[in-house]
Amino acid sequence: MVSRFLTGKEIAAVLQDAAKGTVDIVIGTHRLLQKDVEFKDLGLVVVDEEHRFGVAHKERLKKMRQLVDVLSLTATPIPRTLHMSLVGIRDLSIIETPPVDRLAIQTYVTRYDERVIRDAILREVERGGQVFFLHNRVETIDRLALKLADLIPEARMTVAHGQMRPKELEKVMVDFLDNKTQVLVCSAIIESGLDFPNANTIIINRADQFGLAQLYQLRGRVGRSHRHAFAYLLIPGEKAITPDAERRLRALQEIDGLGGGFKLALHDLEIRGAGNLLGSQQSGQITAVGFELYTEMMEKAVQELKGEEVLPEVDPEIRLGIPAYLPDSYIPDANQRLYFYKRLASLRNVLELDELKEEIKDRFGPYNGIVDNLFLVMNLRRVLKEFLVQQISVSDGKVFMLFHPESPVKVDKLLELIRKQKNRFRLAPDGRLSFTPKCQDWQPLVDEVVELLHTIEDIPAPQRDQPESIRV
After folding, report:
1. Which residues of the chain register pLDDT less than 70?
2. Residue 453 maps to which CATH number?
């Protein structure tokens, strides 16, 4: 083991053994990242509490050996790390099952109020528990501890922060563990690596100055037994904090269930952005291309590097003359209309369409034929994208379809269909298929197009009482 609690001579001996290969496992703090640390044959690096490490730290670990395997553990992934896992650059495993008898922590966001502080501490002390009072300013922490001692003379208090001498800090923590003191006034030094089952109330002063992941980690210092735990996030006032801080605190208060770290990390990703993949920024917005396009490009690049087949994407041009849109009278807000257009454009299956239809109907009431036509067209667009149909149009009673060169349609199936029904189907030299539909009405026409595409792809259409697009 390597940490600042060892003497220089003891640390030198451990590092010497690591370089020789006489020890198999070295467990340490950031001290292991310094340049004088060498390993004879490093095979695995396990980074616990990964959110505490910057890019430079992680790169230092990889420089020790190019092909080292890295396992990162954290309850709240850094936005960049989470994004890399979501797009497939890193593998991701989620542990969702909490320990037996573990209860959710009740979280309160409130203004700094001495009555609230006194009541919270006394309630915990009276049931035999202990309290963390977190104040992350070392220069004023002793003054605050004296103030709290006057406010709650019934409780035994002590102070802990990172600028204390190692032996002194160790004694304070051991005394708290042995229940010799009831309130630990401390800095963010307690953020990770501590397990005090008897401490089940934490009060965080100026909670608005902490990051989302940091708040989650600090809150996790309590509630580590079968008892109900409480977390009080103190702020100077609603108008005295930034909008981002307000979003962080609201997210933490809403996600107070067990195993909420992953959901919280997703909120953090939304608030702060995914950062720079190749640089040192671990958060930030990709303003040049937009987040969704960036993610799409990244997923394709990862698929190519893995040797997977990457099919081209087309944005079908639909010229059927069908009046299809969301009227202003139905959804008055322009932003809401754009939001639903976007969701309709990204449909992946009929189930998603059914759910979206129910949501729109529930929010805005029954819709008319024009909105129904929109659902019909957007479902057709989804099918056309699947079959790589670049264009579909209607002219002089005929339907024309232009296929992408890599479309999954079977040429032999298509030619066989044309031979059997010469009067209805034609294939132009430019690869454009034309046919005369059995019915000119929109619904049957769209059904016929969908059925035709499934036929020539050599995959049978889904067996239902009605064709797929009729469910629209």
Report:
1. 62, 64-66, 87, 256-259, 270-295, 458-472
2. 3.90.1150.50
